[in-house]
Amino acid sequence: MSRLPLEPVRSLSIALAGTAALGVGLPLVLGFPNLSILGLYVAVPMIAAPLAVRRLGADRRDLGESTPTVRVDWRLWSTAFHLLAGALVVVLVATDVRPYGFYAGVAALYGLCFLLIVTGDGRSRRAVALYHLVAVLLLVVYSVTLNYDFFVGHTDLSAHTAIVRSILETGRTATVVPIYESFQLWHVYAAFGSLLLGDGVAAHTTAYVLSGGLFAAGLGLIDGLARRLHPDETFGLLSALVAVAFPLYLFYGMYSIPRSATSIFLLALLVALASRPTAGVRLLTVGLVVAIVIAHPATIPFVLAVLALVALAERATARPEPLVDAYVLAVSVLATGLYWLYAAEGVVTRLAGTIEATLSGASESAVPEGVVASPWVEVANYVPYGFALFFLLLGVLFLLERRGRGADATEDAPDAAVAGDGGRLRSPHLLTVGLVAVALAPLVFPGPLLLLDALAGVNVDRFGHYAFAFVALTGGYGLYELVGRGGPAALLAALVVLSLFGFAAVSNDFTASDNPVVERPFYTFYLEDEERASFEAIDDRYRGAFGADRISCRYLGELHGARCSVIDAAAGEAMFEAHDAVLVREGELEDRPLQFSAYVEEADLPREELEERDRVYDSGTVSFHA
């Protein structure tokens, strides 16, 4: 066999190792050790993945033989799963805040799901495994959104909850928040769900239930997409398992807002694009594109960018039957243009303003504070992304190796390259998905993404909403090959790594701000019952203008119509002087800095100015000074 076909694997391995060394070493030389530290979570998998592929690359088993031969009755793993899951539910009921032991238990559930997938037997293995994956996802998501009173995420939930309440109270879609007027499909959906569940379930709780259910359905879509790329149950289920352990997928399942729902619409669109292009599928494609545009008009530019990237990758790999063709791109552009023209003027104006501010240098972007102030804390919370990147790079390298070993045959007859013919790549589209995942990685994984956000002044992180399918599929393929090539030792190693991946995924501050293993210097993603009760008491007694932190202002302003403004932290000792009254979340301040126009620690809060005012309200968790 010629060495030339495997040259891309060697070249990419060398490039990854060199980039890792440069990414850590160059900032250190230039005097930016914090950026060097931040790069560790990316550098380690960039070096580890090529080493693993080199170690396992000598195995030349066919793709169809990439699953373990050991079989265990799936009921053994399922029984252990349900006993442990039941114990974790008891823990949730018995504790006010999820303890670290809960995260360890969830990590064990991930391990049991992995064992069920790779060693389970029976005709219903796929359905059984998907059920267990859905159960893990819902346990993680609902242990936050239904366990704590009001999950705010990145604060947009206050506005969206206000709109749903307005629809329920008035029966009309005229929004109380004008910027969201052009997309209320999710709000109507949540309001309808609230009517079905009755008055005993709050509107925001209904949204949480629906969002968790959508992302549970998304696991079936990921599995279905994987099966269309390569019809092997193990590959599809491992891809769904990687999705369940990907922090962005978990967080968006919690974050019950319109653009989270569009993530699932995009998954459905990808499944349609990977299906046989019949007339019905073509019509479904149009419907899904229109649904994405209507559900969240600001989303479609990112979706278009992803689709265009898929088309470019397919041209680069010479795919004769592309997933994304001119028809799909044309429909997407046309639907976007028409809806923006007639129904989304506010969205277009805001996008244009953002672009203008960026080009003119008026954007207020800055390197995120956590990167500068506490890089080791940031890296500790990026660990699950490091695991995801490791599996993603494994998948790409193994795909390139498969293509290299079957290059001649697959170029002549790509659809005929099946398992059992020398280990060649069966599906021509798998490599396209892997290349797109690598191209999107800097926009999906934090660190590089945060710096791009700072430099560009736009929401580059929105790509994370629409790229996790590519990460899950490519990472799932890397895990699939890892298990199949290395025998029992690799199976055990994969079990340990996957369990650690799961623990890191559910215990970091992005998905577990209630009690993270390593706490970031940012705000908690939910409001406590006592805080909301205090807000309502203050709103009932005080009608004037006042200043507060950003979370409090969004909640009180959008849900109660209060005249609240975010306090300018740049004023330092005089930050409270411009406000007739001031609200302080004392309970939050004990554990975290408060997010005013910038984050302010307890030690930096000008208490002297507050002491000169009358403390007219104090619940222990919230104080009000007038």
Q: Can you walk me through this structure?
A:
With 626 residues, this protein is mainly alpha-helical. It has 2 domains: 4-145 and 216-507, no CATH class; 530-625. The chain is 66% helix and 4% strand. The strands form 4 sheets. The chain has a 3-stranded antiparallel β-sheet, with no helix packed on it. The chain starts with 6 loop residues before the first helix and ends with a strand. This is Glycosyltransferase RgtA/B/C/D-like domain-containing protein. Keywords: Membrane, Transmembrane, Transmembrane helix. The chain crosses the membrane at residues 12-30, 36-53, 74-94, 100-118, 130-148, 234-252, 290-312, 324-342, 382-400, 430-451, 463-480, 487-506. It comes from Natronococcus jeotgali DSM 18795.
- The helical percent reads 55-70%
- Distance between the ends: 81 Å
Mean pLDDT, nearest integer?
A: 84
**Biggest sheet overview:** 3 strands, antiparallel
- Radius of gyration based on Cα positions: 25 Å
Poorly predicted runs are 1-5, 60-66, 358-368, 407-424
Number of helices: 26
Choose one word for the global shape. globular
* Strand order in the largest sheet: 5-9-8
Please indicate the percent range of residues in DSSP E strands (runs of 2 or more).
under 5%
Structural class determined from secondary elements: mainly alpha
Q: Count all strands and give the number.
A: 9
The tally of domains stands at 2
Keywords: Membrane, Transmembrane, Transmembrane helix
Protein name: Glycosyltransferase RgtA/B/C/D-like domain-containing protein
Transmembrane segments: 12-30, 36-53, 74-94, 100-118, 130-148, 234-252, 290-312, 324-342, 382-400, 430-451, 463-480, 487-506
